[in-house]
User: Fold this.
Amino acid sequence: MPGALAAHGGTGSQSATRVVWRSPLYRGATVALFLSGLGTSAAAPQITLFLVDELHVSLTTAGLYYLTSLTAPIAGYFIGARSDRTGKRLGLFRLCALAGFLGWCAMALVDQVWMPFVISTVVLAFAGAAGSQLFAAVHDDLQATASPVGDGVVSIVRMALTAGWIVGPVGGSLLATAAGPRAMFVATGVCTLAQIVPMGFARARSAPPAATPVATPEPQPQPPAPVPAHLTHLSGRRAMFPLLAFTGLYVLVYAGEPIKYGYLTIYMNNGLHLPTAISGAVIGIQPFVELILMPVAVVVARRIGMMRLMVLAAAFGVGANLCFALTGNAAGMFAGQILMGGVWGVFAGLGIIVAQRLLPTAVATASAIFMSSTALASALGGLTGSLGVGLLGLPHVFLAPALYGLVATIGIAVMSRSRYAVG
Assistant:
């Protein structure tokens, strides 16, 4: 993997890895996003268990908790719009991190059923916008310096978030078992607040106006794959359309994840009767494949284009869900998860870059909308899984996300051939 990282578009002695290491902003954002992924992924699998065991709610009521995440895109949009107006990316990032700390500490103290729902809806919705502000700050700095390895820098920073999601669920489970879920929620809050520490007093340079041409005869270093000029001239609602279309297609790709995490383990244990070690290995192989492929995806995208690569990745998602639905053996489960690693190795590293290029005049808004779209995908996937498992049963419920993925594959293919193609 180090070789792939070094190949992120650097020339000579310059590489994305060195650029990240030498920059306090990029280095701090990398550590901060690792802490964000660590804390969030530690708490996510424990929420419903906490509601059922500690607050004694029904499984149906506990499942409704995930609908509270629907306020996250709204909060993200307002934070992003404010950030684009003021340019104060890191100030808003710190406020969002503080909101996350207060929200998770409050979650550790709840003793009424309604309290977690209100906390998540009102407070934690804003905590999720912290990451989008970091990506916007990194984007601004890359644009201001005209870095030739910008895509590689963003990919490395994004990889840190994925690494946090690899470690977090195991750490959260161990801590909840040893000290209880309330202590684990406090630890999540500490991780959320600790994002501020590696950023220190870092400042991001402002990017030059997107539509201002560079009037000089001397050659200027430019980031790879410049934004199509017509995207910088769109205004009002028309400017949002390409971003919203891409984000909607991304939601269809992502919707299979909550279905998979909700039902694949149950299917492997109760339907296929796989040993616990095998089912655990099946679940664990995806993030490792994803982490390995993220730097490779940047290199490949430079040659064939980001959106064209995403067409292939979305098709991998279709194949993965068909493996879950139709193979009926351990090899099929492994194949499906490896394909899923391919899906997120592409989308996790490149999705945020495409979103920012689709709305180049408001990158904080673009980042917030794209990153908070996972909440919509979780709601869609949760609803589809609840209805689909009753209508289709296991494992055929996975045909539903396969259909979603097929629609997304066609949609991204159309975008990749349109005037809105970027990458």
Summary: The longest helix spans residues 150-179. Confidence is low (pLDDT under 50) at residues 1-13, 207-225. The CA atoms of residues 310 and 346 lie 7 Å apart.
